[in-house]
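I am writing to request your help with a piece of structural work I have in hand. I set the record out below, with my sincere thanks for your time.
___
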Amino acid sequence: MKVVFFSSYYPKYLDSFYKKNPLLGSMSYDEQLDALHKDFFGDWASYLPPFYKLGAEPHLIVPNCKPLQEAWAKENNIKWDSKTWQYSLPIEQVKMIKPDVFYIGNMFEYYGEFLDAIKKYTKKIFGWIACEIPAGVKPMQLDLVLSSLPLFVDQFRKDGLNAEFLTAAFDSSILNEIERTPADINFSFIGSLTKAHSKRINMIKHLIDHTDLEFYGLNIEAIPDERPFFKRLTPSIYKTKFRGEAWGLDMYKVLNRSKITFNAHIDISGSYIGNMRMYEATGMGTLLLTDGKNAPVKLFTDDEVVYYDTVEDAIDKYKYYISHETERNEIARKGQRRTLSDYSYEKTSAQLYDYFAKYIGQ
């Protein structure tokens, strides 16, 4: 089985990564791709080793990484257009691979004409959708949709689409890349604040007001500064808690340094839970303080993570567990054991492989 895992990476991450590695852009396609794999940004590269072990031939295409795509075009004598390379070069890659499965992530800008072109060179197009679908975008081009949100699976099936549930996972090889040191960050949050995270914005605001939460990520300015106008000439308390962006291994290093890390799901998830942060935090052995206390499906028990109900509840539980080290560490250890045993890429890859085989008729 030939499988193309197709996933764009955040432009800010790519800019940051290539700035940290200034010689990388002049290296070969395989060398650049290997360097990206070893930084563990996102999750799709982590599917490759297990799929090899399952006897498949997996490929990862990162369509919006310009140095990487330029290297591939040069090595394969493919002409590229400076305006359309993000679309034209991936089509050429798929044309050369001729996969049985083309598996695309939450990249709705590649729907429409692009997927119509891809259909000529692959047996099936499958997709992962675990976020809000932009208005006007229809996933009907997909032969199978996978999601970590049960309500999405139900809705896709009602719409007449093949849909299956699949949890996210943690790549345990990350633990070999990071030196385990005593945690020196009491309370962290890693993530973004956007219009899709109104609940999260409100909670982060209150947590910064009442705890020593440190913020790593994007758009701290989304938290409203409610001070009188003349006081806004100085940085708000929210901006003083901003610690910069954390991508790839740098993100896991922050989790490794954190005694407790906070999680709040995207608004559209409703009462369901299961975002990447749950697996990343527990996999690193960090105590996870997360929403989902009344979730219909709990992926972790109450003694593997700490669930909160309201922001006041979250504040109270943070204050309790930061001062009760033994209990905190015991819950964190149980959460890590659960993730490493039940939510590994070996297990999710086997399930994903079976879904692929089922829907391509193998």
Remarks:
- The CA atoms of residues 28 and 296 lie 48 Å apart.
- The mean pLDDT is 93.
